Amino acid sequence: MANSRSRPGHDPSLCQIETAQRGGRLRRPGSLYVASRILHNLRNHGLLYTLRATFGPRISAVRKRFGGRQAVVSTPVVVDDVLALRPGEMVEVKSLPEILGTLDDEGKYHGLVFTPEMRKHCGKRYRVYKRLELMFDEYHKSQRRVNNTVLLEGLVCEGAGLGCDRSCFLYWREAWLRRVSNLATRETIPVGEVTERS
Q: What is the largest CA-CA distance in the chain?
């Protein structure tokens, strides 16, 4: 049986991500992150998208700093943003235009970004894995309470453009989902299948 006791005066980390930098060899330093993102965007999205993605946030930051009064980021009002979803329920990811309509100028809904990788799941149905109520922020060593957010079965980040294989769960605001309430439909529609609504 393995000895679970730690060394005297040693406080073991409870999150592997905190110690990941010591668990493997350095492949790409953080200083090259921006360059790698630019190359990825050029290969996959073209020059215009790359210019907007690279310089857009920087221009906005300069405007906020020197443009006097800062603009207030306003989150659009969504009527069905609280579904109280429970594990096992079937949901349908809303269409891309519907989800984009929930995002503020920074591409977020109440602080949570909708990533480009999540777009491919629009219009598909999945089962709720669990609610996301508490989250440990390993970067700031703090615990955060999360509202109206769930994890969906099998939907993990593939690290597109990041070169990351951690496969973290994607976080889904309930405002981006639609409950599938018909029991017969839940039993006949394969999870992940694109469906058409009348």
A: 65
DSSP 75-142: PPP-TT------TT-EEEEPPHHHHHTT--TTSEETTEE--GGGGGGTTBEEEEEEE--EEEETTTTE
Residue in the block written with tokens 């299948």: 193
Q: What is the pLDDT of residues 40-69, one digit of tens each?
A: 888 888 888 888 878 877 777 777 777 655
Residues 177, 151: contact at Cβ < 8 Å? no
Helix 47-66, helix 33-45: angle, nearest 10: 130
> How far is the CA of 69 from the CAs of 65, 107, 111, in angstroms?
9, 21, 21
pLDDT at position 196, please? 44
Helix (H) or strand (E) holding 39: helix 33-45
Is pTM beyond 0.70 here? no
Return the SS3 of 35: helix
Q: Between the CA of residue 74 and those of 103, 110, 156, what are the distances in Å?
A: 9, 9, 28
* DSSP codes, 174-195: GGGEEE---HHHHHHSPTT-B-
Model confidence pLDDT, tens digit, residues 130-171: 999 988 877 777 788 989 999 999 999 988 777 788 898 999
With a cut of 60, say whether residue 124 has pLDDT above it: yes
- Could you give the 3-state DSSP secondary structure of residue 148? coil
